[in-house]
Amino acid sequence: MTGRSAPAALPPSLRGWLGPLAVLAALVVLVLGFLYADDSEPGTADARIGAAVYGVGPPWRHIALATDFLGEPVGAATLVVAVVTGCLLLRRPRAAVLTVAGAGLTVVTATLLKSLVGRTIHGENLSYPSGHTAFATALALVVALLAAGLLGLGRTAGMLLVLAAALVAGAAMGWAQVALGAHYPTDVLGGWCTALAVTPATAWLVDRTADRLGGRPSVAGRLERR
What we know:
single chain; mainly alpha; 9 helices; globular
């Protein structure tokens, strides 16, 4: 299904920029994790931002709850199924694999980091990084990479689309998490950067595995390199 004729999950024109971005994002995740390890209090930035966002009333609270639902198991599964279905209808099997693998590995990474960092909120609730924000950002990245490939966008336009999608999705879910008091703002930043680090790496791995199984790079991949 991800054979030699399948278009790449990670457009070749974006690999040169997404690689360094993923490394930078991973460094941010590690630095924040080190700074807030075993902590249970908001930092200075957390307190200031949280004071402005936390405790919103109707209708914003309803919007925050609806956004939060999209990161819960039922809501997240519904989104993943919808994106996978769209990928298959568009004949982008690698993108379909990336939807499941990218979102899944991002959430698994965020979950593991929570246990390693040990930051808590409201008692014993592990908070860093935000898994909801990581998931939403990862899924937005997958959709943006799919769109960049379908539209044949170049490096600049493709990166602008990818970054805009990640920023909008991450900001929306991050706002909901802080507004509902589920996470500190730095948890949200950590979740956002977790997705930026894991998803491009997973896309590269999906393409590399598919190329090996197919015996050679995809036709679409070779055309995009020209």
